Structures are given as structure tokens and as C-alpha cells.
Amino acid sequence: MQTVAIEQLTLFDLEQLDLEQRFGLEEVQEAAFFGEWQRPWPALSGDERARLDRVKAAYANLERRSLLENTVKLAIVAPLLDLAGLFLPPFYVTTEKTVEIVAQEAEVILRGRLDVLVLLEQLWVLVIEAKRAEFSLKVGIPQVLGYMLTVPDPHRPLYGLVTNGGSFIFIKLQWQGVPRFARSREFILDQDDGLAQTLQILKLLAAEVAQS
């Protein structure tokens, strides 16, 4: 039996042993499958919005200096997790794994990292860290799904958030005979109130997980 590292998995690359082949994973297009992110979002207080304004200012400052590497979790992700109550019981944060990612552009090798955080084994956060924005969120989606597929109790829905600091996508994975997943639309930190909407959905999913 061939062993394939999770960080080598892709959704649709036929040259690799991908998630579809290994697990029968199916992507669902029906909106009702992942209706959680489309529910009415919880309102944010003035204090919460003020904190998000500071996060956006920090991101803009880092982006101008191309110093996103090793600061995404500290400047962007940590405040979101804190505001969503994910550092408090019943949640706890553990680091599943750090994976190096490499891409090549114009004979220049670009390196980044994928950091996987697990919250209560039902809510996963994957952070893509890189000095530049070459690594889209699509890089992280197969990896976080690969980890979610290893959860011992597959009967409850699992949720994921993939971010590179400036963009955010939510994922839902659930077993219905075979593992099925869907993704939300992409939220952009500095467009259309995207950071606030990300926090609102994160709070909603946290409440969903805590109740289950």
C-alpha cells in the first residue's frame, strides 16, 4: 500500500493519489448542504468592530513591508479566534502540523507554510503564511480536508477556515454515505466588510460546534 503525505494531496490532480480516489470525497454544489454560513449572522458590538479596524490597520502596515511571513497568525488569526471566543471553554487550540509549501515563478523559488490549528476536533483553521501572495487559498483546501477526514468520529459535521491573512474561505465536511464537502464564497479582508463577516460566521460556527 502506498503512503502519501497529507501535504502532497490535491483535489483533482490525477497524477497523485488524491482525496477523491482515496476517500471517495465529493464536492457539493447545493447551497442547502452548507447553509450554516448563510444564516443571519450575529451582530457585532462597537468594541468588536473597533478591534477589527485595528486588525485591518495592522494588516495594511505589514502588507506594505512584505512582512506577512510568521505574522499572519499573530496579527490576523489570533484576534479573530479571540473575538469568536475560541480561546475559552469548551474550545482549546492545538497545532496539528506545520508544512512547507514551495512554488516556482520566473526561476525564483517561493516558500511558505501551512499551519493547521484544531479547535475541539470539529473546527479547523489552516493558515497559509508567505512573504508574498502567490499561494492562493486553493493550496490549503485539500490539506485541511485531508486532516478533517482523519477525525475518529465522522458523524458530526466538521468545519474549516482557510486563510492567507487577506482572504478567508469556510468549509463544511460531512459523511453522507461518503464524505462530502462544500465551501463558502471567499471573503476579502479589506473589501465589502469581509473581515467583519468572517468573524460573524466564525462566531456562528463556534456556537454550532459548542452546542453539539
How is the topology of this model organized?
Blueprint: H1 19-23, E1 26-27, H2 46-64, H3 72-83, E2 93-105, E3 108-119, E4 123-130, H4 140-148, E5 158-163, E6 167-176, E7 178-183, E8 187-188, H5 194-211
Q: What does this 3D model show about the protein?
A:
- With 212 residues, the protein is of the alpha+beta class.
- It has one domain.
- The chain contains 5 helices and 8 strands; from the N terminus they run H-E-H-H-E-E-E-H-E-E-E-E-H.
- Strands 1, 2, 3, 4, 5, 6, 7 and 8 form an 8-stranded mixed β-sheet that branches.
- Strand 4 (123-130), helix 4 and strand 5 (158-163) form a beta-alpha-beta unit.
- It starts with 18 loop residues before the first helix and ends with a helix.
- The model is unreliable at 12-17 (pLDDT under 50).
* Assembly category: single chain
Summing up helix and strand content along with how strands pair, one would put the structural category as: alpha+beta
Largest sheet: 8 strands, mixed
SSE string, helix = H, strand = E? HEHHEEEHEEEEH
Total discrete domains: 1
- How much of the sequence lies in strands comes to 25-35%
Unreliable segments (pLDDT under 50, ≥5 consecutive)? 12-17
First CA to last CA: what distance? 36 Å
Q: Please provide the count of β strands.
A: 8
Net shape: globular
